[in-house]
Structure formats: C-alpha cells, structure tokens
Amino acid sequence: MLAAGQFPRDLLPDVRAQIKSWSDSPNAPLALKHASAKIRPYIKPLKLAGPPPGAGMSILLVDDLLSTGTTLRTAADILRSSGCAGTVDGLCLLSPVGRLS
Prior knowledge:
The protein is an alpha+beta fold. It has two domains: about 1-45, no CATH class; about 45-100, no CATH class. Helix content is about 25%, strand content about 15%. It has helices at about 10-25, 70-80, and strands spanning about 55-65, 85-90. It has a two-stranded parallel sheet. β1 (about 55-65), α2 and β2 (about 85-90) form a beta-alpha-beta unit. The longest helix is centred in the N-terminal third of the chain and has 13 residues, at about 10-25. It is elongated and about 40 Å long.
C-alpha cells in the first residue's frame, strides 16, 4: 500500500529503510506499529471489502490501542467516503476515548 509519489521527498530515505526492513523479514507479521512514525500517516492500512453497510448508519469503530490514530482515521475515512456512515465514532480499549473528526 505504498504508492510511488505518495511521500514527501524528505521522507524517502525513511520509506526506503522501512521497505528494506520489511523485505529483510518476509515471513514476519506486518503491522503498522512496526512502521516508522514519520511515514505512518501516509500508509493506508485498510480498504473496504465488499459492499458498504446501509447509508446513514451510526458506526462505532473499536481498536485495541491508539498509537497514531491511523487505523481508526483510515477506517472512518473509508466509511464516510463510501456514503454509508452518518456518524463514525472511535473507541480504544487501552487509550483515551475521543470523537474522530
């Protein structure tokens, strides 16, 4: 999910280092928390599989831990752009609770 031209030029060394790190351990579990914090906002870790739920729904996203908020923010953006979400709220079990803006 790393697209060419997606990153600012000053982050390219970090991106290359991250890709090398992942390619050096191809069988290791891949999680966004293993990515450099500088490049996490540019990686979209999710995509909607299948048709979205009905339009205008209130949706609660639950995550185990909030680090940068990328996973919850990406999920909320996907749901909003699909037209299904009237409101999207996020809950982290091991982090402060807040409204996704």
